[in-house]
Write a structure and sequence with these properties.
alpha+beta; Cytochrome Bc1 Complex, Chain A, domain 1; 2 domains; two-stranded antiparallel ribbon; 7 strands; about 50% helix; about 15% strand
Length: about 350
């Protein structure tokens, strides 16, 4: 890997990668003067990797340490616990980084077989943003990927089953209690995805959100409190997180319950919807200032929906959401009795 790093860094390029539950992205930022050289190296990494036993063993150790570091960070760890709780028995419920047990059993042949099965013409999207001559770039990609495996049928997975509401309590050697409330939602292909995102902004995404005002600003019960929406292709989760003193858990849970039930019963105010729309619109427009964000937006659009996302159409769809839309979705999703909870409690023993 050191040679690959040198190839990128010798021309001042920055390379990285990330994996989600449904896709992997390899990307490089470079000056346009060095584009051909960088694309050549990146294509080799993705299409023609060398799986050397010694490298796999070294990576096994690195990933094992990464897993341990996640487990030492309670705020990270509780989301892994929550996904296992919500998707028990399904692949989505497994942590992206794996477990120490699973990582210990992966062989070099397993890695090679996975690459052969998933890296083919039907599953790879190439996206680029910035100063580039498109026709020249396309010719370069055609030349560099001439030996890519032919298109195969994409692997399909079953939609996770809806599990009943549950409560999980885990004891860990931490100083602070960590709370996670969760509820299943539709996925990003559903017509209500923008309604979900706006509802999330009002609930807990931002300093003026209901949860932040009630738990932090008004009562000082939590330093870190927020909500988030995570959407997969066919399902999703809306979640509320709070880090609190263990003696204040009951008060915090009661406030979260009240906040959810109020939205389920009464919906939200016009001023809240207006603020949420402005927040999402601003975030989308400001993301266009980043070439990396543009690249990711185009690639994910093709991967997930078959065409690059048009940010202005997305903004228009967000602005079309009404108070009635929010009320309809909130009436179903914000009944507190349907949410599952996961709690990490301080303990002297693991």
């Amino acid at each position: 890997m050191s040679k690959i790093s040198r190839d990128f860094e010798n021309v001042g390029a920055y390379a990285n990668a990330y994996t989600t539950k449904e896709e992997t992205c390899y990307y490089v930022r470079t000056l346009s003067d060095h584009l051909n050289r960088v694309v050549d190296t990146l294509t080799d990494v993705v299409i023609r990797p060398m799986f050397v036993h010694a490298d796999v063993e070294k990576e096994r150790t690195i990933i094992t340490e990464e897993i341990k570091s996640y487990e030492d960070e309670a705020e990270e760890y509780i989301f892994d616990l929550g996904e296992r709780q919500m998707f028990d028995g399904h692949a989505i419920g497994v942590p992206i980084v794996g477990t120490t047990q699973s990582v210990a059993t992966i062989t070099t042949d397993d890695v090679r077989s996975f690459h052969d099965r998933h890296y083919h013409a039907g599953s790879i999207v190439v996206a680029i943003s910035g100063k580039v001559e498109i026709s020249e770039f396309l010719r370069s990609i055609e030349r560099l990927t001439s030996d890519v495996l032919p298109k195969r049928r994409l692997a399909k997975r079953a939609t996770p089953k809806e599990l009943p509401q549950s409560s999980l309590i885990v004891h860990r050697p931490v100083q602070q209690s960590h709370l996670l409330w969760q509820r299943r939602t539709p996925g990003y292909m559903h017509q209500d995805r923008f309604v979900l995102q706006l509802l999330n902004v009002v609930l807990g995404d931002g300093m003026s959100s209901r949860l932040n005002v009630r738990l932090r600003e008004s009562r000082g019960l939590a330093y870190s409190v927020y909500s988030q929406v995570q959407l997969f292709s066919d399902c999703g989760i809306i979640a509320i997180y709070a880090g609190v003193d263990e003696h204040k858990i009951d008060r915090v849970n009661a406030i979260i319950t009240t906040a959810l039930d109020e939205i389920a019963r009464d919906g939200i105010r016009k001023s809240e919807l207006r603020r949420a729309i402005t927040q999402l619109r601003s975030g989308k427009l400001m993301s266009l200032e980043s070439l990396t964000s543009r690249m990711t937006m185009m690639g994910k659009g093709v991967m997930e929906e078959g065409a690059p996302e048009n940010p202005y159409e997305t903004i228009a769809a967000i602005e079309r959401v009404t108070l009635d839309d929010i009320a309809r979705v909130a009436a179903t999703l914000c009944d507190a009795s349907t949410w599952s909870t996961c709690t990490i409690m301080p303990s002297s023993e693991d």
